[in-house]
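Example record for the data management plan.
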Amino acid sequence: MRSPAAPLILGTLPAIVAGAFVRWIADVTRTVWMVQGVSVMLSVAMAWGHSLLAGVGVLGAALAFGGLTGRRLMAIDAALAPCSASGCWPAPTR
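Corresponding structural encoding:
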């Protein structure tokens, strides 16, 4: 003879399994969102870091170019100074 509790157990078993499955899906989804959130934060941080490094690189390149250009202009002035002192060409009139 069947137990009088059998219909109750058999009736609630699918609900328990479904609840556990839904809870498992929620945990997996939450974990995936957390991992994606961390990866998004890391991506943003890396992009910010790369743009910061690029900005520093551009600034460094500009300073290096400016220094190089300044040194070249000073070298041209130094090379032309003896010529202008000796009168290789007429002095500019004002």
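Summary line stored alongside the record: The helical segments are 6-86.
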